[in-house]
Specification:
The complex is a heterotrimer of chains A (about 650), B (about 150) and C (about 190). In chain B, about 35% of the residues lie in helices and about 30% in strands. Chain B is an alpha+beta fold. Classes of the chains: A alpha+beta (about 650), B alpha+beta (about 150), C alpha/beta (about 190). Chains A and B meet through helix 3, helix 10, helix 12, strand 1 and helix 13 of A and helix 1, strand 1 and helix 3 of B.
Chain lengths: ~650, ~150, ~190
C-alpha cells in the first residue's frame, strides 16, 4: 500500500513540476501576470509531495517490506535501524529519489522565502528548476522506479553486507548529495537571470545563501570522505586523486569560485557574466561527476555490470541541461550589460585572480580525470595519479595562497599596494622563516613551499580582524577569516605530512621492537578475536613516545563471512603533534608478522582545516541569513503599518 | 595604481582568463605527457622498455613458484609473465589478500635496472582495490542489471 | 575609473561560445567511452591449455562435487564460476537455464560461498548445474585464469579450455556460447 502511495505521490509531484515549468514560462510573457500567483504554491507543493514520497520509501525500509524489490535487494530484517534507514539511499534508485527530493525541496524553499529577486527572474528560475527536476523525475519513473514490487515477496532481504554497514559510509553520500544538488539552485538562478537578462546585486544576494549552504555540505563531505579513506584503506594516504574523489572535488572548486565571484557581484555589481557562467559550471560539475562515477566508464578491470542504457540516459540529461545552459549563455551573455569596473590593485582584482586559479585547478583535475578515457581512444592505457595532480595543482594553488593573504586586506574598487605592504610584513617574514627552515632541513621543494605559504597565510588570514571590535565584527567577516585560516591549517597539515612522515615496515616476532619517528613500538602478541559477523587476528602493540609510558594499540586484520571479504582495521594514536598509524599484515612463512608503522607529524591538521573551512562557511551563512530575516521583518512591518494607515 | 581604460576592462579580463585557461591546458598537456603512468604487459615492457625511474604500471600473471621472501620478512620478489615474456618484480610491503601465485596482479612502480620495483600491488579482487568499484556495482550497476533483466 | 556608463565596447562574442565547444568535446569523449567495445577485461592465458587439476567438495546437498577428471571424455561442457553474493550471477541465470535446455552440460564452481546462501540462491534463480564444486579459497578460479565472477568457460572433451566468457551471459551471448560448444566437439 505504502509503495503504491509513494509511487502515486511521485507521479503527482512530477505532474506539478510540468505545471511549474509551463506556468513559469507563461508568466514570462508580457501578459502573463495571471500566472504569477500559480508558480510559487505549485513549487512548494511539489517539494512537499516529493518529501512525502521519500518518507514513504524510508518507511518501507524501516518496516522491511520485502515485497518491494528495492528493499528485498538492499535491506535485511536483522539490520540495525540506523542502517535500514541509510539503506534507503545506499542504492541507485533510492539515491536518485534523494537527488530529486533535495532538488524539489530546495526549489520549494526558494519559492517560499525568496523576496529580493524581481518577480520575472524568480519565475524563470523556478521554471528552470522544474525543467531540470523533470529530467530526473523521468529517469526515476521510467528507468529506476524505487517502488517496484516483486511478483511475490522475498523470504528475506539480501542486503546484510557488513562492509557497507559503516556509519561513515551511511551518511557520507547524502552529505555530498545535499552539496551537489544544492548547487542546482545556483544553476537555475543563473539560467533564470540569463532569460530575463537581469543580472545584478539583488540576484547575487539571493543566490549567495544557496551557494554557501551547498558549499558547506560539500566541504564537510569531502573532509569526511578523505578521513574515511585514510583510516579504512590502511594505505596511510589521505587523498588518492581517484575519479570518485575528483568527482566531489570539482564541484567544490567551482562552488568556491562562485562563492567569491557572487560576493563581488553583490558588493560591487561587477563580474556579471562570469558569475552566471560559474553558476552554470558548478552544478554541471556535480552532474558530470555523478555521471562519471555512475556510468562506470572510468572504472577499470571490474567493468562487468556497466549498464550503457542507464549511462546513456544520464548522458542525455547532461547534454540537454549543460548544453542548453551553455548555449543560452553564449547567446545571452554578451547582452548582459557590463558591470562596474575596478583597478588592477583592488579586492575585486584579487578575487578575480583567485577565481581564475580555482578554475585552472578545476580544469587540470577534469583533464587528468578524463585523460585515461582520451588515450584509450588511441589504444593506449594509462592511469593518472599523484605525480601529475600534485605538482600541477600546486602551481595554481601557491600563487592563490599568496593572493588569499593579500586580497581581504585590499579595498574594493581601487587601492595602493604600498598601503598594505607594512601590514603584510609579519606574515611575509614568517613565511620566509618557515620556508628557509624547511629548506635547510632538506625538505623537498613542494612541501617546503607549502609550509612557508601555509604559515604565512595562517597569520595573514587573521589580519582582517586587526583594529576591529571583535564583538561587533559581523559574522560573515568571521566566517571568511576562519575559512581562510582553515585553508592555511589544512595546507600546513598536507605539507607536514608530505615532508616529515616516517615509515617503518618490518616482520616481527612477538616481543620485538621497532622505532618509527619518536615512537618505539613493541609487538606484544597476536590473538584471534571475533565480532558479530567477522573474525580477526588482532595484534597488541605497545607504543612508547620518547621512552614514556606505553599506550596499547590493537590493529586487526578482519575476515568477514557473509559476504566474504577482508578488511584491515588500522589502529591510530593521535597526539597534539601528529598521529601514529599501525597496520597489521600477514604472517610470513617463518612465523614473523608483517607490520607497517607510520608517524605522521601534524597530519590531523588536514581535516581540522577542512572542518574550519566548513565552520567559516556556516558562520557566514548564519550572518547572511540573520541579516536577511531582519530586513524581511522590517519590510513586512513597514508594509503592515502602511496598510493600517491606509485604512 | 592607475585604472585601466574603462572600455577595455572587460576585454583585458577576458584575455587574462583565456591566457590562464590556455596556460592551464598547455601545462596539463605537458604534465600529462610526462607523468601519466602507462600500462604495460611483460612483453611490451621487454620490447619497448620505459625510461628508468618513470612511473608505470605492469599487469600480468604471477608465475608459479616465483614468490620468494627476502630475509627481512617484508620484501618479496616474484616474476610476472603474460605467456610471452617475464619480468622480475621486487616489492616491500604488506601484500594484498588475494595475491597468490598464478593470480593476476597490477603492480605500480618503475624499472630499476632489469627489475621492476613496485610501490603498490593491486591484486584482482583484493578488497582494498575493489571497494570503490565494488561499491558502484552493488549500489548502482549490479542491482540495476539484476532489476532490468529479471 | 568607472564612473561613466557602460559603453557598447567591442563585445568578445566569440569567446562566449568556448564553454559550449569544450562541453561538446567532453560529450564526444564520453559518448565514445560509452559505446566503445569493452576490451578492458583480462583474457585468460589458459585458453588452449588443459584445465588445472582440482577436486572440489559438493557445494549443495543435491549435486555432486566437481573434479577436473570429470572433464575428460564425454562431450564438451561449460564451467560456470559464480557465487550467491554476486549480483550479475543472478542476471545470467535465465541464460544458463536456456543453455541447459539447449543441451549444454553445465558444471558450477561456487566461489567463497556458504551452503545455506547458495541453497537460497539456487532456489530463487534455478539450478542448471550438473555438478557444483565449492571453492572456498578461489583456488580453481585463480588456477583457471579467471579474474572475477561470473565467468564461463567452454571446456572440450579432452579437458582443454576453448573459450572464456567474462561477465554475465546476456541473451545475445547464448548463441555464441552454443556455437563455441559445437566447435569444441571437433
Amino acid at each position: 500500500m505504502i509503495a503504491e502511495l509513494g509511487l502515486a505521490i511521485l507521479w503527482m509531484a512530477a505532474a506539478l513540476a510540468v505545471l511549474q515549468l509551463v506556468a513559469g514560462a507563461l508568466a514570462l510573457r508580457p501578459q502573463g501576470a495571471a500566472m504569477l500567483g500559480v508558480v510559487r504554491p505549485v513549487a512548494v507543493m511539489q517539494g512537499i509531495l516529493v518529501a512525502l514520497a521519500f518518507a514513504a520509501l524510508i518507511t518501507l525500509f524501516v518496516t522491511t517490506d520485502l515485497s518491494v524489490k528495492l528493499v528485498a535487494e538492499n535491506s535485511h530484517s536483522a539490520k540495525p535501524l540506523i542502517f535500514k534507514i541509510a539503506g534507503t539511499w545506499g542504492n541507485h534508485e533510492g539515491s536518485m529519489l534523494l537527488w530529486v527530493t533535495i532538488m524539489s525541496l530546495a526549489g520549494g524553499f526558494v519559492a517560499l522565502v525568496e523576496r529580493r529577486l524581481p518577480e520575472k527572474t524568480l519565475m524563470a528560475t523556478l521554471a528552470a528548476q522544474a525543467f531540470v527536476s523533470l529530467g530526473f523525475y523521468a529517469f526515476l519513473l521510467l528507468a529506476s522506479n524505487p517502488f517496484a514490487r516483486l511478483p511475490q515477496p522475498a523470504p528475506e532481504g539480501a542486503g546484510l553486507n557488513p562492509l557497507l554497514q559503516d556509519i561513515g559510509l551511511a551518511f557520507h553520500p547524502p552529505t555530498l548529495y545535499v552539496g551537489y544538488v544544492g548547487l542546482s539552485i545556483a544553476f537555475s538562478f543563473a539560467v533564470g537571470a540569463l532569460i530575463t537578462r537581469d543580472v545584478g546585486p539583488a540576484f547575487a544576494r539571493a543566490m549567495r545563501p544557496w551557494v554557501l549552504g551547498a558549499w558547506i555540505f560539500l566541504t564537510i563531505g569531502i573532509t569526511a570522505g578523505s578521513y574515511w579513506a585514510y583510516y579504512t584503506l590502511g594505505w596511510g594516504g589521505w587523498w588518492f586523486w581517484d575519479p570518485v574523489e575528483n568527482a566531489s572535488l570539482m564541484p567544490w572548486l567551482a562552488a568556491t569560485a562562485l562563492l567569491h565571484s557572487v560576493s563581488v557581484l553583490a558588493a560591487r555589481n561587477a563580474l556579471r557574466a562570469w558569475t552566471v557562467m560559474l553558476g552554470v559550471i558548478a552544478f554541471s560539475m556535480s552532474m558530470v561527476g555523478t555521471f562519471l562515477v555512475r556510468s562506470g566508464i572510468l572504472t577499470s578491470v571490474h567493468a562487468f555490470a556497466v549498464d550503457p542504457a542507464r549511462g546513456s540516459f544520464i548522458l542525455a540529461l547532461l547534454a540537454i541541461y549543460i548544453g542548453g545552459a551553455l548555449l543560452l549563455f553564449a547567446l545571452r551573455a554578451s547582452t548582459v550589460t557590463e558591470g562596474a569596473r575596478f583597478a588592477f590593485v583592488s579586492r575585486e582584482a584579487a578575487l578575480v585572480f583567485n577565481n581564475v586559479m580555482l578554475c585552472g585547478i578545476l580544469g587540470i583535475v577534469l583533464l587528468g580525470t578524463l585523460y585515461p578515457l582520451l588515450t584509450e581512444a588511441f589504444g593506449v592505457k594509462v592511469s593518472v595519479g599523484p605525480p601529475y595532480f600534485n605538482p600541477v595543482a600546486a602551481i595554481f594553488a601557491f600563487p592563490m595562497f599568496v593572493v588569499m593573504a593579500v586580497g581581504p586586506l585590499l579595498r574594493w574598487k581601487d587601492d595602493r599596494g604600498g598601503r598594505i605592504a607594512p601590514i603584510l610584513a609579519v606574515p611575509a617574514l614568517v613565511a620566509i622563516a618557515a620556508g628557509g627552515a624547511a629548506f635547510v632541513a632538506g625538505v623537498r621543494v613542494l612541501p617546503a613551499l607549502g609550509l612557508a605559504l601555509g604559515a604565512g597565510l595562517a597569520i595573514a588570514s587573521l589580519l582582517p580582524l586587526r583594529g576591529r571590535n571583535l564583538r561587533r565584527t559581523p559574522l560573515p567577516i568571521w566566517g571568511m577569516v576562519i575559512a581562510h585560516l582553515g585553508i592555511a591549517v589544512a595546507a600546513l597539515g598536507m605539507a607536514s605530512e608530505s615532508a616529515f612522515s616516517t615509515e617503518t615496515l618490518a616482520a616481527l616476532n612477538p616481543g620485538e621492537t621497532r622505532q618509527v619517528g619518536p615512537y618505539a613500538l613493541t609487538l606484544d602478541r597476536i590473538d584471534p578475536v571475533a565480532g558479530p559477523n567477522w573474525t580477526a587476528l588482532q595484534a597488541t602493540v605497545s607504543a612508547r613516545y620518547d621512552g614514556g609510558d606505553a599506550t596499547v594499540l590493537l590493529p586487526q586484520a578482519r575476515v568477514f563471512a557473509n559476504p566474504p571479504g577482508t578488511r584491515t582495521e588500522s589502529a591510530l594514536k593521535t597526539r597534539w603533534n601528529g598521529q601514529l598509524y599501525v597496520v597489521l599484515g600477514e604472517e610470513g612463512q617463518d612465523g614473523r608478522w608483517q607490520m607497517r608503522f607510520w608517524w605522521k607529524p601534524f597530519v590531523p591538521l588536514i581535516w581540522l582545516g577542512g572542518l574550519l573551512v566548513g565552520l567559516g562557511g556556516l558562520l557566514a551563512l548564519i550572518g547572511r541569513v540573520a541579516r536577511d530575516v531582519k530586513r524581511l521583518v522590517a519590510v513586512d512591518k513597514i508594509a503592515f503599518r502602511r496598510e493600517r494607515q491606509g485604512r | 595604481m592607475s585604472a585601466i581604460k574603462a572600455k577595455h576592462q572587460r576585454l583585458v579580463l577576458l584575455v587574462i582568463a583565456l591566457a590562464a585557461l590556455i596556460g592551464a591546458g598547455l601545462l596539463a598537456a605537458w604534465a600529462l605527457s610526462k607523468q601519466a603512468s602507462y600500462f604495460y604487459v611483460p612483453s611490451d615492457l621487454m620490447a619497448h622498455p620505459p625510461e628508468q625511474g618513470r612511473a608505470v604500471r605492469l599487469g600480468g600473471m604471477v608465475q608459479r613458484g616465483s614468490i620468494k621472501t627476502m630475509p627481512d620478512g617484508v620484501t618479496i620478489t616474484f616474476v610476472v609473465g603474460d605467456g610471452k615474456a617475464t619480468v622480475p618484480v621486487r616489492y616491500a610491503g604488506i601484500t594484498p589478500d588475494l595475491f597468490v601465485e598464478g593470480s593476476g596482479v597490477v603492480a605500480e612502480g618503475r624499472m630499476e635496472g632489469k627489475t621492476f620495483v613496485a610501490d603498490n600491488l593491486l591484486a584482482k579482487h583484493d578488497e582494498k582495490y575493489v571497494p570503490r568499484e565494488m561499491k558502484d556495482m552493488t549500489e548502482g550497476q549490479a542491482k540495476a542489471v539484476v532489476a532490468e533483466t529479471k | 575609473m568607472s564612473a561613466q556608463p557602460a559603453s557598447p565596447a567591442r563585445r568578445p562574442g566569440l569567446a562566449l561560445w568556448l564553454p559550449l565547444v569544450l562541453f561538446g568535446g567532453f560529450l564526444a569523449l564520453v559518448v565514445y567511452g560509452l559505446v566503445r567495445p569493452d576490451n578492458r577485461e583480462v583474457a585468460s592465458t589458459f585458453i588452449g591449455k588443459p584445465i588445472p587439476a582440482f577436486a572440489l567438495p559438493p557445494a549443495s546437498a543435491d549435486r555432486p562435487g566437481l573434479s577436473s577428471a570429470q572433464f575428460v571424455g564425454g562431450k564438451p561442457r561449460l564451467l560456470n564460476i559464480f557465487a550467491s553474493w554476486c549480483g550479475p550471477c543472478a542476471v545470467e541465470s535465465p541464460q544458463l537455464a536456456q543453455l541447459a535446455k539447449a543441451g549444454a552440460e553445465i558444471d558450477g564452481v561456487a566461489i567463497r560461498d556458504r551452503k545455506d546462501d547458495l541453497a537460497r540462491f539456487l532456489a530463487a534463480n534455478g539450478n542448471p548445474f550438473a555438478r557444483i564444486g565449492q571453492d572456498d579459497l578461489s583456488k580453481v578460479q585463480i588456477g583457471i585464469g579467471s579474474s572475477g565472477v561470473p565467468e564461463t568457460f567452454v571446456v572440450d572433451a579432452h579437458g582443454v579450455i576453448r573459450h572464456q566468457h567474462i561477465g554475465a551471459i546476456m541473451p545475445e551471448d547464448v548463441p555464441v556460447i552454443l556455437a563455441k560448444l559445437k566447435e569444441a566437439e571437433q
